[in-house]
Every structure is written in C-alpha cells, then in structure tokens.
Amino acid sequence: DDPAHSFPREIAMASYSLYRSSLALNAVLFVLFSALYISKNHTQNLETSVRLSNVRSMPAFARQRPLSRNLQVFAAVPASVVKELREKTGVGMMQCKKALAESDGDIAKAEEFLRAKGIAGAQKKAGRIAAEGAVVSYIHAGSRLGVLMEVNCETDFVSRGDAFKELADSFAMQVAASPGVEYVNVEDADPEFVAKETEVIKQMEDLATKPENIRDQITAGRVAKLVKEKALMEQPYIMDPTKTVNQALVEAISKIGENIKIRRFERFNLGEGIEKKVGDLAKEVEEQTQAMKEAAAKKEAEAAAAPAPAEEKKEEEKPKVAVDAKSVKALREKTGAGMMDCKKALAENNNDVQAAENFLRKKGIAGASKKAGRTAAEGLVVEYIHPGARVGVMLELNCETDFVARGEKFRQLADSLAMQVAANPEVDFISMDEIDPAAREKEFEMEMMREDLASKPENIRAQIVKGRVDKIFKERALLEQDYIMDNSKSVGEAIKEAIAGIGENIVVRRFRRFKLGEGLEKREDNFAEEVAAQMGTSA
C-alpha cells in the first residue's frame, strides 16, 4: 500500500493480463489453422478420388495418357478408332487423332468437336451439285508439259474468289508433278485394268507360299495399292505433303463453305508416242551433195542439148518490171516472205499485190508439201483460257527442231491455233483424214434417206450426198476452218505458209477443249418457295 510502489504494481498487472490474452489468441489461431488444413486435405482427397474414378471409366488407351494435356496432345489412339471416325466424318487422319485426344477417346464427342470446328460439315456438302467453277491450266517451263483441268464449285461467286483460284491452280500443278496419275478418284479406275491386274497378281510366284485362305486378301490389297497410285485424290498434296489431295480438298470445302470437285483433267507430254528419227548426219549430207551434183549435171546436159532456144529465152526475159518499194513492203507485211521473193513475185505479176500474194502462196504450198513427210517430234504445248475461265484449250504443235520451237513465229502460230479451237466449238478433230470410215458411212446412209433426194436424178444422188457429207465433216475439222487471224485463208493454208516461211514441217498433233459444266445437271431453285419453306420451318 505504499504510494511509492503503486505504479510498478499496476504495470505488472497489465502485463499479466496481456500475457493471458495472447495465450487465448494463440489457441484460437491454432484451432483455426488446424481446421483449414484438415479441410484442404479432404478436398484434395476427394478430387483425387473423382479423377481416379473418371480414369477407370476411360478406354484403356486414354488411361495411358498423362493427366496433363500440355505434355502430349496426340495420345496413343488406336488406328481402328481413327479409321471409324474418318469413315463417319471424311476428315483427315491427323485431325481425327487430335479430336479423339481432345475427347478422351469418345468417338461421339470427337465428331461433335470436328463439327464445331466446321470440318465434318464438308462431308455433308459433298452431295450438293457443283456445276460452276473454273477451267484452269498449267504449262511447265519450256512448254513441253501441260495440264488442262476443270474444277467445279456451287456458285460463280466462289469461283471468282482468290482462295478457289489458288486451289484449282495447285491441283493442276499437282497433275503435272504426278506423271503416274491417270484419273481423279479410285472409283474412276478402268474395270478392265483392275480385272487384268488382279489376274496378273494371282499368277505371281510369291503367292504360292502364302496360306490359301488369305491369298485373295493379299491380291485385293496389292490391286488397291496399284489403283491408288494412279488416283489423283490419293497423292500427297504438293503444297503440304503431310496430307493427301483429298484431305486438302475437304479442308477447302470446310473453309469456303461450298462443295468442290475436281471433275476432269488432261495432260500432254510433248512428243510422247512419236517415233523420233535418228539419222546419220554425215550420210545425209553426202546424199544431199550427190543429189545436187546430179541435178547440176542434168541441167548442164539440157543446156548443151539446146543452146540456141535458151539464149533466145534469156533475151526475152531481160525486160523487167520496175518494182515499187511500197508494194514490196506491203507484200512482205501480208505474207512474211523475204524481200527478194516479194520483188520477184511483184515483177512476175506487174506490181499487182494480190496476184503476187497468190503467186507466193502457191509457191509456199508447193514447198510445204515436200516437208510434210518429215518427222516433227519437237514443238510446244500451249494453252488458251478464255476470259471468265469457262472455256479452256490445250494444244500440241510439233516441228522438227527445238530451235524453231523457241522462235517467236512458231510460238505465235501455236497460240493462234489454240485460240482457233476455242473459237470453233463444233471442231472435233484436226483433219479430214481422221474421220472414222464407219461414221462417214453412217452419215452417208442418213443423207440418202432424206426426202428431198427423191426429186433428184438417180445418177447424181450419190454425188449430192457425198458433197453434203463432206460439208458436215469439214465443219468439224480444224484444218478446214477459216483462220481467225486471216479469214481469206483456211487453217490448213496458214500452216502450209508457216512451213514455207520457217522451213520445217509443222503438225497440229492434238488438242483438248473443256467447257465449264458441260454435261452437268444444274439445279434450278425457286427462290420464293425456298424462302417460304424456311419461314414455315422457323415458325
């Protein structure tokens, strides 16, 4: 109770109260943290139990995948499951594997995954009519290899898009890069080829060592492999070798939103099938020299036998017509002949340009006929795509040497002939010599049955019918058409003049013309009915 000692006692009592409060607080915190720890462990144990339960319900191959998706997305998915999903959706193998990995091996969920991505929808579009599109071409450097192709889509709006054009061009290039390809799909394989290959494989010696019950399976597998090697859709896509052409097409359908089909293609290899003449140059020069000597000797003998008339004739030929330079220039521009040939032709025809042109044409045709028998295995493969890409032509024009083939005149002739075929849709063959005798005979019989012949004398009916039949087939022969670059001459005459001017035999060997959508049935929709049907469905 001493006032001098009261302050320290109060301090001691306060410290004691604080100490007891801290003990109580520590006890409360201990209880709280203990409860949180127990709760956390319980939650983790529960999550682990649920995860293990889900894993036990997964297919065996999915349980082998680590729980972390970031480690391996492409798990070990059985090929049979991938195959089943591919058959249901028509999607590529890698995309099917990814969808199955994302869906824990559930095929139904994987199909929904692909549908959500818009990939599986391409299969549904495959049944829609595709009659629009484009005719495209690819001519390899050097013009010795060319491809003409028709690719179809549903609307001309899509066909004008860059994505469709790039796809079509890549497919044409694909055909050029795949010389073994002969048709578009496996289903397009010739049944006779399949049957023949099947018989050949059955006779192979190594099959004799195989069990009899699996020989047919082995044979079918080998035949299927051969057929696939010739099918365009089964080839590795040149723009992405990890997928086939078919897979690239399916992806494009999904992206563009319309059905797309490769309808047909044609490939030309310059000179394929032509037997090239292998000559002895030294022997050929010797023969030509000998022929020239014999011709000179013959000429000298004729001159010696009749010297007086020759002198008189020479005196008669001395008077010459003065040739105008403008006329020479005009004739050269019209014919492409040399200056001296033009001057001679004008002198022979009293400066009449038209008569001189006919004179040169006769000379050119005579010279060209001598060259027609020579082998022409070089040349160019050219194409012409009409604006709008709805008509396309590929043509092979042959000459004797690659030197001439690289010339500008030969190139211009080839290009004009390709354009000629595009301008004459009724043309089916090159010359009248290619007409099938059976077709000519059939046409002859049909013309003989026409009623208007009854009024004609019987002795001239056959001649009339022959003229009619010739006219029908001339309208279908390329060489008989009016040349689009000069309507005063035929295509055949234009080629003969080119032969005379260039100095080598020139031959139109073959051509192919594609017209977009020809033979395809186009769907005609009633827009009003379609809108009414959609409104009724939505209601």
Q: What would a concise description of this structure say?
A:
Helices cover 55% and strands 12% of the residues. The protein has 22 helices and ten strands. It has helices at 6-57, 60-63, 79-89, 93-102, 107-117, 121-125, 156-159, 162-177, 191-202, 215-229, 245-256, 281-305, 307-317, 325-335, 339-348, 353-371, 402-405, 408-423, 437-448, 461-474, 491-502, 527-538; strands at residues 132-139, 145-153, 236-237, 240-244, 261-269, 378-385, 391-399, 482-483, 486-490, 507-515.
Low-confidence stretches: 61-73, 310-318
* Main sheet: strands, sense, barrel: 3 strands, antiparallel
Strand order of the largest sheet: 1-2-5
**First-residue to last-residue Cα separation:** 99 Å
Q: How many beta-strand runs?
A: 10
Q: How large is the radius of gyration?
A: 42 Å
Query: What structural class do the secondary elements suggest?
Result: alpha+beta
Number of helices: 22
Gross morphology: elongated
Mean of residue pLDDT? 81
| Beta-strand residue fraction | 5-15%
Helix percent reads 55-70%
Would you mind describing this structure in some detail?
The chain has helices at residues 6-57, 60-63, 79-89, 93-102, 107-117, 121-125, 156-159, 162-177, 191-202, 215-229, 245-256, 281-305, 307-317, 325-335, 339-348, 353-371, 402-405, 408-423, 437-448, 461-474, 491-502, 527-538, and strands spanning 132-139, 145-153, 236-237, 240-244, 261-269, 378-385, 391-399, 482-483, 486-490, 507-515. By secondary structure, the protein is α+β, with helices and mostly antiparallel strands. A hairpin with a 5-residue loop joins strand 6 (378-385) and strand 7 (391-399). The model is unreliable at 61-73 and 310-318 (pLDDT under 50).
